[in-house]
């Protein structure tokens, strides 16, 4: 079972402490089980013989044992909590780092929201189970076993009762728990749905309110809420059945013990004190079974979580760093795509097919095409966010798959289609590519990106706060900062994926002009929208549904490529109507 | 940044717990039944030990009796024992009704045991029913809490949501609510049963022996005091733990959402290191919190054991002096176990309860946030024209004015193009019209009626919105387009799609209108998403349209479609366009130029060009940018060389 495997793997480093825990809990259980023995002694030799002194002595012994048990339990709590929290920390760390190593394909496959839940909520579930196990419920099975042993020692004659009662109880509890597992999983899924809807509503709050869709959204939420409640209630009811079942069994057993025990006492085979002790053991055993069942109840949910966590850890990264990276330490900036194909597993049509291009430092190569043509995929290939399924992507003649990832990252500067900033300050964001950039360099980059005045106007300038995702900035401001970020990194190859989309025409023109000068000696790969950019690129690749349908300079393409003509014409039409 | 959270406030358990219980208490009928059943179940449960005690007495009496000479009446035998100096035995004999010579009365024993079984079965049944009802009540309460939270989200001011990191809010709305729900359904119910059981047990103990009860209860205040100290300290730690968890969540959210950037810029290690630091802090705090909280159980057990020992000793003494029977002591011991069991259950759930309360505080903080101003019940004129006016409108967040003294009129059917640099206040203007924000001074009117005086829904039913951020929900394209108007039919959707030239694009997709999309999906390009949002606005059939044209994240082919679509959408409606395209601006009926929160110029294209002011300058810059690249380069300041 995945849960057991996960727990075993991550508890392994703490073997020593786990052993200590077991020992402590063993001592604790021994203490708990000893008490009835001493009590039996108190009754049989103190009470029955009216020996007052014996009563006091036995009492004192019991007190001592109690204290010892308490100390053991306290130390056990400390150690148990430590082990469980360390476990949680280790799993979280591993999941986080593993996701960091995955490529875009795997991340989008699992879905970012799901990954977030798995790294946080699901790990928490398993951690809670380990905590319960470490601090409390380890005692329960020991109590059960110990109790049975002691009871047998007191009077083997009644042992057949125990042998009947305990397995029966275990069976009944087991049946209930097994039935709970699928319902528990369902409950978890329903919870995911509820969270998903809430997330959507938070993100799309303007649209929801603008179209007056609050009632509809409430209804939609109400439906998933009701679903969750329904399943949750089913699980709760099953859980509620456990205690009564255990109690009935317990009392039946007690009655049986008294009846058959009474006969044995009459026949002189057993002492009354022993009988009293036996009763205590029976109660303890059944109480322990209850505790075990409580833990079992937590099991299904934790098992589902463990599955989800294990799935992430099992996912192999599609893009792996080379075992022996090429000796290239700094890129010059020659980009080559050689007959590149990208096909997603199980897809009918490839995203890119047969694409080739060549770009050298000082050149600007543009990629144009209608939506779905694969332009962003192409850009991702150069940054090695994705690997080709056929063909090669080369930088300075070396396959990117053989490059040292650090060299690649330093040599390539990405401005993605969706401008994203991290929480922190403007400065920390700009320094993402090069943490040791000086303030002067930051300002220079901002100037080129036409964002200098934006930052100057911000409260704190370079130290101005940026919220997660950059939500306290407008789309245009975000995009310019992303551009500046790439500039600060001083890459040899710039990958601009629609990097001016949120800017108005005049700002874009200024930015492009400044950028052209600033990147004079670098290679620039541009995914273009506006005809103006495309017109003076050194080379243009025209894509249609992932296939190259034209390549060359603007004037050549106008003559040779129908698709290109269409694109330009539509743009010019748009131009003319301006 | 945000309102003071539970983490900053000194924790006061009381109010939060009361509110939490209050949620449960709303289920009046169910809770009443639960109480009744619990009392019944508890009553039956505590009757058990009495019966068991009597059974033990029967056995013990038999044992003692069989050791005495048969035939003699009990009093005579007692006399005999006393003369022999065995006073204790004599007293026990009299107390327990021993019949000298007779063994165990199995007939009586059998009867008693049958009663035990019957009572136990009845108790179990009562407890089962009670458990079911309690689960139902707790789940209903959780459902209501979730509903309340969701409704609250709809009533929070947009201005607040814009300024608060959504990830944190999301964590409260999902993680904390889930934790509270679980606390209600699992922990609270057990707590209730445990507490009631404890009360019932104490009552029974009093009936057997007030003295022993006193002895047993002496330890309780001590334990409670210790418990309270522990809980207070661990509560603070729990609040810290949840705060760290929130922090960690935020880091995870960012790192995973910006995954590509982290990889592309080679910053994996730093990000991992920062995560590790927070992770370690969480572990430390969590450890301390759980440890302190986990001490409750051993303390309770110790208390229980000490109690047990004391009861055994004192009880034995009482039996020897004839004040109690052995069975009574056995029963008492069972009771004290029954007392400590629920108390230690409560103690062991301490950490769960505390954690639940910490979450509850965060949820209640959310529910207590100030809301949008309630709707006033004015009415818009029945005759829909679409005349919009801004009258001396000002707005600010409190950190400097975003709009100052804006005066603007758009006649019905006019296209108003709002232009200006970023941060000029264009988006704010539009936010005021849609009532996402309310003006600090002045008012906005629609057809002469102050928009603040009518219900928001009524206002917005006359507006249509196409934003920069293309948000679609998880559903089919058809559903997303129909989102524009409640009650939109398939025919409406089709009509809107055709009118905005989206129909062709959608039908080219493999699943057509049934294609499932959402915020994350890549099956639609940015341009296609934009087209869907335009169709959505069309379905709304608004009088006034608000368009943010920074929607040019579209390739050139689709660009044309989008332009045509927007034009179709605008036909015959008043439009407020945050304009980027020269064509839109030039053909607008009214151009409004904004700078730093003020309107600096208003007029038609021709008028403003002639005026030679801000618009003229803007226009020239755009023309240059379009026509003449080298000229643009010269006009721009000496470009900084960034890197080589």
Q: What would your notes on this structure say?
A:
The complex is a heterodimer of chains A (578) and B (644). By secondary structure, chain A is α/β, with parallel strands linked by helices. Chain A folds into 2 domains: 313 residues, ABC transporter type 1, transmembrane domain (ABC transporter transmembrane region fold, Up-down Bundle); 242 residues, 3-Layer(aba) Sandwich (Rossmann fold). Chain A is 66% helix and 10% strand. A 6-stranded mixed beta sheet of chain A has the order 6-9-10-3-11-12, sandwiched between helices. In chain A, strand 4 and strand 5 form a beta hairpin. In chain A, helix 9 runs antiparallel to helix 10. The longest helix of chain A has 53 residues. Chain B is of the alpha/beta class. Chain B folds into 3 domains: 355 residues, Up-down Bundle (ABC transporter transmembrane region fold), CATH 1.20.1560.10; 135 residues, P-loop containing nucleotide triphosphate hydrolases (Rossmann fold), CATH 3.40.50; 69 residues, P-loop containing nucleotide triphosphate hydrolases (Rossmann fold, 3-Layer(aba) Sandwich). Chain B is 64% helix and 10% strand. Chain B is built from 24 helices and 12 strands. In chain B, the strands form 3 sheets. Chain B has a 6-stranded mixed beta sheet, sandwiched between helices. A 4-stranded antiparallel beta sheet of chain B has the order 2-1-4-5, covered by helices on one side. In chain B, strands 7-8 form a two-stranded antiparallel sheet. The N terminus and C terminus of chain B are likely disordered. At the A-B interface, helix 2, helix 3, helix 4, helix 5 and helix 7 of A face helix 2, helix 5, helix 6, helix 7 and helix 8 of B.
């Amino acid at each position: 079972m995945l849960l057991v495997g996960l727990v075993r793997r991550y508890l392994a480093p703490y073997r020593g402490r786990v052993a200590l825990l077991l020992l402590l809990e063993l001592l604790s259980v021994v203490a708990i089980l000893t008490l009835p023995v001493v009590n039996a002694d108190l009754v049989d030799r103190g009470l029955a013989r009216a020996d007052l002194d014996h009563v006091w002595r036995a009492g004192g012994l019991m007190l001592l044992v109690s204290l010892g048990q308490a100390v053991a339990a306290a130390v056990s709590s400390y150690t148990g909590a430590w082990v469980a929290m360390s476990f949680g920390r280790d799993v979280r760390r591993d999941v986080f780092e593993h996701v960091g190593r995955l490529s875009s394909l795997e991340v989008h496959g699992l879905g970012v929201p799901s990954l977030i839940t798995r790294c946080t909520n699901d790990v928490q579930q398993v951690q809670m189970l380990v905590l319960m196990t470490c601090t409390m419920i380890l005692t329960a099975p020991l109590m059960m076993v110990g109790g049975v042993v002691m009871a047998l020692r007191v009077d083997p004659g009644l042992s057949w009762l125990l042998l009947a009662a305990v397995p029966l109880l275990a069976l009944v509890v087991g049946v209930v728990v097994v039935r709970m597992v699928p319902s528990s999983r369902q409950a978890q899924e329903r919870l995911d749905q509820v969270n998903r809807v809430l997330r959507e509503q938070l993100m799309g709050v303007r649209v929801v309110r603008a179209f007056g869709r609050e009632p509809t959204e409430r209804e939609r939420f109400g439906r998933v809420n009701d679903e969750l409640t329904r399943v949750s209630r089913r699980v709760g009811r099953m859980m509620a059945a456990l205690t009564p079942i255990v109690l009935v069994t317990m009392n039946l057993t007690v009655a049986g013990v008294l009846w058959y025990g009474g006969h044995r006492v009459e026949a002189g085979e057993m002492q009354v004190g022993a009988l009293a002790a036996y009763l205590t053991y029976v109660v303890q055993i059944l109480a322990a079974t209850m505790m075990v069942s409580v833990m079992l109840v937590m099991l299904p949910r934790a098992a589902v979580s463990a599955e989800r966590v294990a799935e992430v850890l099992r996912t192999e990264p599609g893009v792996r760093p080379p075992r022996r990276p090429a000796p290239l330490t700094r890129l010059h900036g020659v980009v080559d795509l050689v007959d590149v194909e990208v096909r997603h597993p199980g897809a009918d049509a490839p995203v890119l097919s047969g694409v080739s291009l060549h770009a050298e430092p000082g050149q600007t190569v543009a990629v144009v095409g209608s939506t779905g043509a694969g332009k962003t995929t192409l850009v991702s290939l150069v940054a090695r966010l994705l690997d080709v399924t056929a063909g090669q992507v080369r930088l300075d003649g070396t396959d990117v798959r053989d490059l040292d990832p650090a060299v690649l990252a330093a040599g390539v500067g990405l401005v993605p289609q969706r401008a994203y900033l991290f929480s922190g300050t403007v400065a920390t964001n700009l320094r993402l590519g090069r943490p040791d950039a000086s303030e002067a360099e930051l300002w220079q980059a901002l100037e080129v990106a036409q964002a200098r005045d934006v930052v100057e106007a911000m409260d704190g300038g370079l130290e101005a706060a940026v919220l997660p995702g950059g939500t306290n900035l407008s789309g245009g401001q975000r995009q310019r900062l992303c551009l500046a970020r790439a500039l600060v990194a001083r890459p040899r190859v710039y990958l601009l994926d629609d990097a001016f989309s949120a800017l108005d025409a005049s700002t874009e023109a200024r930015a492009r002009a400044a950028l052209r000068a600033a990147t004079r000696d670098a290679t620039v790969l541009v995914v273009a929208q506006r005809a103006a950019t495309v017109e003076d690129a050194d080379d243009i690749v025209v894509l249609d549904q992932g296939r190259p349908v034209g390549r060359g300079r603007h004037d050549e393409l106008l003559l040779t490529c129908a698709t290109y003509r269409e694109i330009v014409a539509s743009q010019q039409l748009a131009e003319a109507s301006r | 940044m945000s309102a003071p959270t539970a983490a900053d406030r000194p924790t006061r358990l009381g109010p939060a717990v009361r509110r939490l219980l209050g949620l449960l208490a709303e289920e009046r009928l169910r809770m009443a039944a639960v109480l009744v059943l619990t009392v019944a179940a508890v009553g039956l449960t505590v009757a058990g030990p009495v019966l068991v005690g009597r059974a033990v007495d029967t056995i013990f009496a038999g044992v003692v009796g069989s050791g005495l000479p048969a035939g003699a009446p009990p009093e005579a035998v007692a006399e005999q024992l006393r003369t022999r100096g065995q006073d204790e035995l004599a007293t026990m004999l009299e107390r327990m009704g021993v019949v000298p010579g007779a063994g165990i009365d199995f007939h009586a024993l059998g009867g008693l045991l049958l009663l035990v079984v019957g009572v136990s079965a009845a108790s179990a049944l009562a407890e089962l029913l009670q458990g079911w009802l309690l689960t139902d009540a707790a789940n209903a309460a959780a459902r209501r809490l979730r509903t309340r939270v969701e409704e609250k989200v709809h009533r929070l001011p947009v201005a607040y949501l814009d300024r608060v990191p959504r990830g944190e809010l999301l964590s409260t709305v999902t993680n904390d609510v889930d934790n509270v729900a679980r606390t209600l359904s699992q922990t609270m119910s057990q707590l209730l049963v445990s507490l009631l059981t404890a009360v019932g047990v104490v009552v029974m103990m009093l009936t057997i022996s007030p003295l022993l009860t006193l002895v047993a209860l002496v330890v309780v205040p001590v334990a409670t005091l210790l418990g309270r100290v522990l809980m207070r300290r661990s509560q603070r730690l729990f609040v810290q733990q949840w705060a760290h968890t929130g922090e960690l969540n935020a880091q995870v959210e960012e790192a995973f959402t910006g995954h590509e950037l982290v990889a592309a810029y080679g910053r994996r290690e730093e990000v991992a290191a920062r995560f590790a630091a927070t992770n370690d802090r969480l572990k430390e705090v969590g450890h301390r919190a759980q440890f302190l909280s986990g001490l409750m159980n051993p303390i309770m057990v110790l208390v229980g054991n000490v109690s047990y020992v004391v009861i055994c000793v004192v009880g034995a003494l009482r039996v020897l002096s004839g004040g109690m029977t052995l069975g009574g002591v056995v029963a008492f011991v069972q009771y004290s176990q029954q007392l400590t069991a629920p108390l230690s259950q409560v103690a062991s759930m301490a950490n769960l309860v505390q954690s639940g309360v910490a979450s509850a505080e965060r949820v209640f903080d959310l529910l207590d946030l100030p809301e949008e101003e309630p709707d006033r019940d004015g009415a818009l004129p029945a005759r829909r024209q679409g005349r919009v006016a801004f009258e001396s409108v000002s707005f600010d967040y409190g950190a400097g004015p975003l709009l100052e003294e804006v005066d603007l009129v758009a006649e019905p059917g006019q296209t108003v193009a709002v232009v200006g640099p970023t941060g000029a206040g264009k988006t704010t203007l539009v936010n005021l019209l849609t009532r996402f924000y309310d003006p600090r001074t002045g008012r906005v009117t629609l057809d002469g009626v102050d928009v603040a005086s009518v219900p928001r829904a009524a206002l917005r039913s006359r507006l249509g919105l196409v934003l920069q951020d293309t948000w679609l929900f998880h559903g089919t394209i058809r559903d997303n387009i129909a989102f524009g108007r409640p009650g939109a039919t398939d025919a409406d959707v089709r009509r809107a799609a055709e009118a905005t030239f989206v129909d062709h694009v959608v039908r080219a997709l493999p699943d057509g209108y049934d294609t499932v999309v959402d915020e994350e999906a890549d099956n639609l390009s940015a341009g296609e998403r934009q087209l869907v949002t335009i169709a959505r606005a069309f379905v709304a059939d608004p009088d006034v349209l608000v368009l943010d044209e920074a929607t040019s994240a579209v390739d050139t082919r689709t660009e044309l479609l989008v332009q045509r679509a927007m034009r179709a959408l605008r036909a015959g409606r008043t439009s407020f366009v945050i304009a980027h395209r020269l064509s839109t601006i030039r053909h607008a009926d009214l151009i409004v130029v904004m700078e730093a929160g003020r309107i600096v110029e208003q007029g038609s294209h021709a008028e403003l060009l002639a005026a030679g002011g801000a618009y003229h300058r803007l226009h020239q810059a755009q023309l240059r940018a379009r026509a003449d690249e080298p000229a643009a380069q010269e006009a721009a300041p000496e470009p900084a060389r960034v890197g080589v």
